[in-house]
Amino acid sequence: MVRITQATEQDFPQVRGLFLEYIQWVIPLVEEVWGIPIPVTPADVVERDMVDVQKFMPPHGRLFLASDETDAIGCACARTIRPGLAEIKRVYVRPGGRGNGTGRALIQTILAALREAGYTAIRLETGPFMPAAEKLYRSLGFTDIAPYNEGETPKDQRQHAIFLELTL
């Protein structure tokens, strides 16, 4: 059974590990699909996220962990872009935890928390190399939008990314 909880500071070592696994997985995919080297290391990205991890914590954001009986198996977080608008980031489920609804449960939990906190819209970036994630987001009502400046994708690479938004 998978349990979804709001992360606390005591969970940050697990969060760091999940963020690192995600970035180690995604950077080679981005490099392959986009055909360009990514000029940062996974450790650099994770360190930047962890230095500023409070942006993912209430009241400015949310950070949820999915855990099974023994360990954290996934995470999802959101940060405020501006009042009423948040961005979902770092949605990741370890390979052994995929296919059982964990990703959907994480996203539904984060959407409910953001709705309850008064957000009216949620944005995210994904890539064509993550078709299961894109399918999940679209099944929850996310629709295409133009690229937005607050995302991570550099301006000169935005043609490779998929930008989505959900009105709550």
At CATH's second level, what is the architecture? 3-Layer(aba) Sandwich
Total count of helical runs of at least 4 residues: 4
Strand composition percent: 25-35%
Largest sheet: 7 strands, mixed
Strand order of the largest sheet: 1-2-3-4-5-7-6
Structural class determined from secondary elements: alpha+beta
Specify the helix fraction band: 25-40%
Give the H and E element order. Answer: EHHEEEHEHEE
Annotated CATH homologous superfamily: Gcn5-related N-acetyltransferase (GNAT)
Mean pLDDT: 94
What is the end-to-end distance?
28 Å
CATH C-level name: Alpha Beta
Tally of domains:
1
Uncertain runs: none
Tell me, briefly, the overall form.
Answer: globular
The count of β-strands is 7
CATH topology: Aminopeptidase
Radius of gyration: 15 Å
SSE arrangement:
Blueprint: E1 3-6, H1 12-34, H2 42-51, E2 61-67, E3 72-82, E4 85-93, H3 102-116, E5 121-126, H4 131-139, E6 143-144, E7 162-167
Parallel strand pairs: 4-5
Antiparallel strand pairs: 1-2, 2-3, 3-4, 5-7, 6-7
Helix pairs in contact: 1-2
